[in-house]
């Protein structure tokens, strides 16, 4: 079975491929579909998605809800983990620490980044995550903690 990264690389090379991959990824975990994410980039140690500001992700004051932002951060982290985790290992999120820094009053760009050394040192792997507006204002920042272990045979 091809890896998620293989599928991304093949699909993103096609016209409308990133849009189609975004739909595919949104269906992989149904709660990702609720934020209507668009996958911008996926590679080892880096992933980026965009959450469009739509009524379905807004809170009572008309900004992107904090939990929708966290959903986007987790989606970005999942792409990073799929692209980075060795094929003989598995990853599981074990916690998320975030701070809400500003109102999310527009589309959010959710980014996940990790350091190669952290994956080598495992099994605890921190992934830095941020959600930012198009002007660069960071609205949510934090760390998602992964547990990376060898697969049982």
From TrEMBL:
Signal peptide positions on this chain: none
Cross-referenced CDD domains: PaaI_thioesterase
Pfam family, one: DUF4442
Protein name: Thioesterase
Species per Swiss-Prot/TrEMBL record: Aeromicrobium erythreum
